[in-house]
Amino acid sequence: MRLSIVTTLYNSSAFIEEFYRRASSEAAALTNDYEIVMVDDGSPDNSLSIAIELVRKDPRVKVVELSRNFGHHKAMMTGLEHAVGDYIYLIDVDLEEDPAWLTLFWKTLKDRGLDVVYGYQIKRKGDWIERLGGAFHWWVIRRLSYYPIPENLVTARLMTQQYVRALTLHKERKTALGGLWALTGFRQPGLPVEKGSRNNSSYSIAKRIEVGFDRLTSFSEKPLILVFLLGIFIFALSVLGAFYLVVLRLTGTVLAGWASVMVSVWMLGGLCIACLGILGLYIARIFIETKGRPYSIVREIHRAEGKNA
To answer: What's the pTM value of the predicted model, to 2 decimals?
Structure first.
């Protein structure tokens, strides 16, 4: 198998057929030996039935049906595990990312002897709130992560089978795929792309915040170091404050009022809770990982009759 195109399905019924048409056209222009792997991530709409109908029409389509919804990143990793092509093109199905990028990525990878070519946005899509939130997210990641995670990544990327096999060695159940892409290494430059936009994105604000925490706690222990330094700073400050109060009392100054005491108690109490919360995030990750649960479960693989791979 020369080329595999991998995508995931979740509330994607409106895009599947158009994606299939455009992706097939791009792949056929490069090679006749290709497959399209669609991972149904427990989609509540009729995405699965539409994809299975494509299997009946085109033996190059393969549908990996998960037993339930496991999440976008885990579904993508599952799709990569089932891709058998020498080169694997990962892309979202919703057509915000143009399947035509495959030709550009292919030419760049082959001409320069690379392992991966990925897309990134020079200017983030969306309204000012989304752009501002994204800019703040990447500002935090750049300063707290030990690994140089590229900014404003998109899903679309062309990878060699060697890189994908190395990538799928990672078995974290709670992670952020963008960090794993960078952590795996190999030669992988980015190309600027212009991503489209649609109004009903499946990534809510809460989901974006969750991904941000996953990305941070998966690839950096700097928050724990900051908590330790904050504790040392507060302790030193309290010692200086206590010494100052003793000096005032010895010089005859009467200290009255409980407002400052209550404010200090609430401030330090909130700070302790926040620090415990950061520690709790890391402990929770340890708890999840020690269970050794699979990050996805395949219910069934739909492929053309008589086709084993």
So the answer is: 0.73
